[in-house]
Structures are given as C-alpha cells and as structure tokens.
Description:
Number of domains: 4
Protein name: SSD domain-containing protein
Strand content: 5-15%
Keywords: Cell membrane, Membrane, Transmembrane, Transmembrane helix
Largest sheet: 4 strands, antiparallel
Strand order of the largest sheet: 6-9-1-10
Helix content: 55-70%
Subcellular location: Cell membrane
Distance between the termini: 19 Å
Low-confidence stretches: 106-162
Organism: Candidatus Lambdaproteobacteria bacterium RIFOXYD2_FULL_56_26
Pfam families: MMPL
Number of helices: 26
Number of strands: 14
Mean pLDDT: 82
Shape: elongated
Oligomer: single chain
Amino acid sequence: MFRRFIDAWAEFVVEKRVLLLLGSLVCAVLVFAPMKNLYFDNSNEMWFLENDPALGDYDKLSTYFGDNEYFMIGIEARPGETVFSKDYIQMTYELTDFLENHDFLQAVHFSELTRSRNVEKFKVEPNQPTALGDFSNSGFGDEGFQTPGEAAPKADEPKRDHPIRAVTKVQSLTTYQATKAKGDSLDVIDLFPDNSAEFTGSDEELAKAAKLMESETLAQDFLLTKDFKNAMISVRTTYLKGTVDHHVALVAQTKAFIQEKGYEAKGFKFHYTGNPDISASFFNASMADQGLTLPLMFLLIILVLITSFRTLAGLTLPLLVVVGSVLTAMSFLAWLGWALNMLNVTLPIILMTAGIGDSVHVLVEFYHFRAKGLSPKESAKSTVKLVFVPCLNTSITTALGFLSIATSKLAPLQEFGLVAGFGVMAAFVITMTLLPALISFSKAENSKEIAEEGKVARMTHKLTELNLKYAKVIVAGAILSSLVALFFASKVEVNANFVDYFKKDAPMRQDLDYFNDTYKGGFYLEFILDSGKDKGILDPAYLKKALEFQSWAESLDGAGKANSLLNMLMQFNQAMHGDDPAWKILPDSSDLAAQYLLLYSNSSPTEDLTDLKTFDERKMRMSLRLVNRPTNQMKVFVQEIQDKVDRDYKDLGITITGMPVLYNNMDSYILEGIVRSFVLSFVSISLCFLVLLRSVKYGLLAMVPALFPILLAGGLMGALGIHLNMAAMIIAAVTFGIAVDNTIHIMSRYIHVRKGGGTRKESIDAAVTETGKALTFTTMILFFGFSILMLSTFVPNIHLGLFGALILAVALLSSLTLLPAMIFLQKHKIHH
C-alpha cells in the first residue's frame, strides 16, 4: 500500500506541477507571515521551565526585595591618582546623572507589566519622547499603568504597550551617604553635594571625602577599594520576565555616552559586569555571528553545488529547499511565541546543513536517470520512487536526533529540539514536492557527465577492493581506537558556566576577571533568611546567629564581602557610640534594633533598605560576592554551604539562590539531558533501522558507523579538557541522527541489490559506488557548514562546529570503509 502511495505521489507532483507550484506560493505567504513577531531573549528564566524550583526561589528575591538585577561599572583611577580627584568625581557626577535621568525605556505588554513589582514608580508621561523612540502612540491614556492589584485586560481587549524605566536606583561615590550620630538621632552625611553644581573639586573638599571614606568599612571593597584606586557605579535595573531589551538598551547607551564624553581618552579605564551586561554581550555576539556565519554558509553551499552539478538547476533548487526549510522553521518558532536566543540563532546554519542532504540525493539520482535516456518528467518520477523511502528514513532519524534534545529540562533546548525536528521534516516535504516538480522542467544536456565523471566517482569504485582486502585491519583499528577514546571520554566533566561561553579575550570575560581580582567577584550568591514571624529578624539571638553564618560564609575560599541588614545595624550601633570601632556590634535588643531602623528612616536617606528586608521584618536578604569558577566547583561550594546550613543554621530559615544556584541546576540538567537524549535517540533510531532493514543483525551493524565517530569525539573532548555543555548535548544527539543517514542509504542500496541476486561484493560495490558520490557531496556541505560555526563568538558554538564537522567526516569514512568491512566479515544471507 505504501509503495502505491509513493507511485501515486510521484505521478501527482510531476503531472500537477503547475498547480503544485501555485499552491506552494500561497502557502509560503501564509507560513512566513508570523516571522515579523520574532524577538530576542536571554533572560535568566528563559533557561528554565516555569515550575522549576530553582527559578521559583530566584523569583522570590524580586517578590520580597524588589528588582534584583544590577549593572556594575568599575572605573580605574588614572595612574598616579586616586578616585578622589576632581576629574574622577566630575565624571562620576555626569555618569550618575545620565543613568538616573536618561530614559532607558522599554515598551511592554500588560502581561509582562503585571509580572514586574512596584510598577507605579516607573510611570512615564504618555507623550514623553524616550531614548528608544516616541511612545506617544503606544495606546495608553490618562489612567496610567495597570499595577499588580488591578484586573488584567479582557481577552477581547487589544494589548496596550507601556513604557517601563530600565534604571531604578544608582549607587556611586556621588550618591554615597555616611551614617553618623546627631545627638540622640542618626544623621546621613552626603560624601559629596547632591547637586553637582555645588561641587568645587577643591583639594580640601576631596581630602575631606577621602578621610571620611577611610572609616567607612561598609563601602570599602564594595563601592571602592581600600587603596582608593578603583570605584564602581552600581545600577539597579528593572526586573521583567521574558525580556532583556531594556538591559541591552541600557548597556549600549551607557557605553555610547562614555565614548561620547571621551572618558577613556582622558585615561580612565572602564569595566562592566552584571546581568544586563551579560544579556547585552549575548545579544551583540549572537547578532554579529549571524551577520558572519549565515552569508558564509550560503556562499559555501553555492560553491559546493556549482562544483558538484555545474547546472543552474543543480545550484538553485537545493538552495530553494534549504531556504524554505529554514524560513518554515523560524516561522514555526514565531508562531509558537518563542524567542530567539544565543542557542537557537544557530538553527539556520544547522538546518541549512541538515536539509541539503536529501535534495543532493534527489539531484544525483535525477541525473543518473537522465543519463540513461529518460525524459525530465520520467526521470523526476523515477527519482521520487527510488529515494522517497531512504529520504523519509533519513529525515525521520535526523528529526529524532533533534527531538531527543527536547527531553531536556532546559527550555531553550526543548524549543531548539522541537523547532529543528520540525524544520528537518519541512525540508523533506519540500524536497519531495517542489524539487521533483521543478527539476521536471530541467533540460540539462550534461546529465551523463554529471552522473558518472569526477574524482569522487572514481574514488568510490576503488574502495570495494580495499575494504575486502583490509577488512580485518579496518575493524581491528576501529576497536582499538574506540577503547582509547572510551578511556579519555570518561574524564570529561560538565560545566555550564556562562563565562566559559565566551573566548578568553572577550571583553565581558576580561571585565569579569577585573571584578574577581578587584572586588572578589562580579556576581552574588543570595540568601533569603526567614525568621518565621513578624519582626523576627530583629531578635538579638536571631541576629547573632545570622552574623555567625555571614562571617563563616565570608571566610570561604573565593568568597568576597557580604551585604546585608546586619552590616547596616552594626554601622548604626557604632555611629550611636561615637564611631567607636569597639561598638561595631549588633544591637542587644529587638527594641534597639527597631529604634535604629526608625531613626535611619527619619534621616531621609537615599537608601530605604527595602532591598535588604521585607516590610514586616520577617525576612532579610544576604548577598555574598563570589569569584567566578566552573560550575562543577561552584556546585561543591554551594553544597558545602547547604550542608552547613542544614547542620548548624536550620533555625535561620535560609534559602540559597542566585545565579550560581541557577547555573548549578543547569549543569545537572545538561548531564541528565545528555544521557536521556542520547539514549532516546539511540533507541528510536535503532528501531527505525530494525524496521527498515528487517534484520536485528544488520540493524545493529548499521549503528556502528554512526556511534564510532561520536565516541571518538568524546575521547577528544576528554583529552583536550573540553567540558560538556549544551553544545555537547546537541552534538551527540544531532550528529548521531545525521550520521546514520549515510548507513541508511548504503544499507538500503546494499539490500536492494542483494535481493536482486547480487553477490556480497557486487552489492557492496553497488552500494558504495551509487550512493558514495551523493554522500560525499552531502558530507562536504555538512563538514564545512559545521566548520563555519568555529568562527562564532560563543565557545559552545565553536565546539559544536569543531566536533560536528569531525563526527560527520569520520561518519562518512566509517560508512564507506568500516561498514563494508564488517559486512564482508559477516555470513548473513538476505532472502528474496
């Protein structure tokens, strides 16, 4: 029945070709329409599922303590100077004013707005022009913003865009306030005048500020270094789920302002870190990669097709297939409402390489039939009948390789796997509809020359004798190299640290090294302490034990300074006792602690402490700076703290969260996902082989040439000390799915000839010769296509390109040598 369907399909796509082409044009318009909705996202929650416990704990930070993401700008003083120079402070005034008052705005929908806290404080006048454009026509009126307590718009109401301010608070030397006693009250003293116009820059004013900061241990190694050679500006940014556009705008416009002012030309060195800078780095690198790799990939395919077929149809028709499959897949991504990210921006490259194979096979067989004297229409029909089943099987196995990735717990990998699998099947549909219809118009006169001549065709003819003569040597060599690879593969470790996604010379990575060396870290491990009752965090016993825990955490190797309410209370206590260092201790009663907080709030400070404690004073936040390290080491570090908490500090109600915990979980998901996806890919593709070949022995035999190169790649990773990450997960599942395509074509042709009465040698020679040319051309495209990814900015993409190209090259070699050698050593018969 299936054979009758294929025959009918071949008749339909050729005889009804004009109708089919017109229908395809209509479908193209409908399919590609959603692409206008594509957007880029590299937010933290993008990497996790909505019900992920680690993400839930991370979200509690913003729920309890407001926006929790910071953009940090580290600025080195000029050689021979300190940060207390007139030019440095004037620059800090200008940059702080820019960050506080410049309108870094992002238009968001109501659905996003309700997920952001304290929306009212970001309100902007409806007709106010912004740095990102004029929002006067954004659709909101005098009613202002919808706050979290308001009702959401009805289903039939159109979504209205609202601008959200990206910066919520700026901390710098020019906004710093010291806390001192004034009689029975606390008073805040500005380090520098609030109004920059009042700053004189005199030696006396600067010396006074420097003298004050010598005793401000709270700010030392946090806002500035003890030697006064470095200081930072800490920018608290709006936390919005599902978008980082406001962060990208903030970073880009800040750097543009710094360049415009010429601060670096004046001798100041700038360094950036924090989630906004990371998001901007990912975005900028992704866009740069696409601008380089996609055109190169397209040019490569053109060159290979021209070399292979030397006809206009041989050049344009495969391009039509790959472009159509890529656009269909990206449209599918947009239709599902998913965003572009640093992972799926590689989809066009991967789909272009994976989707070209079937079209090359179709063209090679078409020219074979033309060389035999068949008309273009009859050649197109015969080609569909011959390659439909092998191409279907190769598409299914490749799609299964991609779909196995979708079993990961990481949302971007799930989306990547589903969209890529869909794109591969879309390429098959286009190959079996548009391609036969179009090539049936071909009038190429050099069909015989294309089909038979060339170095590749001559090379494949010689392989059969070599495989027969050296069969045992080939198999023994494969076994020996597999054992060596297995040894090194066992040494591979998992690492999902985002820093290692960038090359060592990347500005983001060098800047993070600066923060590690200068401030003992550029990001934080966060602790939420829950006392279990209102005012509970002010209890002296609770405070004492919390300080004990904080001091222990700060003493750990690679830990920097912790920021918490405890520091503030000790500073208040010292200030109220004549700034005597001996009184830098916690208040000895709940009433005294509460009184200090009241006195502080009455002093009109710029810091309101809402980012350190909840309003009911049941919970408080502790932020510990950490030096960057691989996730396997970070996992040990966090686990050490968790064990300590479970053993000695259970009554503090501590929840450990922050970016290190998220990346630790990602690390576990990657390892679990690699095992699950590869096992699923192996089992599902093995079943496909068993069904296709109808032989357990030949089904398992055909898996060897696909598994062998993956094992070699794993051994090479271990030998080179390359860590497992998302790229490794994609490499294992995807290349396995693509690599088995070679064995499918060879085994299908071998069994076909064997059933026709051919000997084992004749069948192997026919299989290698007749499919070898198409497989070689396809692998060339795949090899160079993956190799282009090595030009990427992202290290995982570089590894994807390196090992993907290696695996596919070895897979071709294995299919043309190892597989025939193993068949020669078998004594299995194929029955008619």
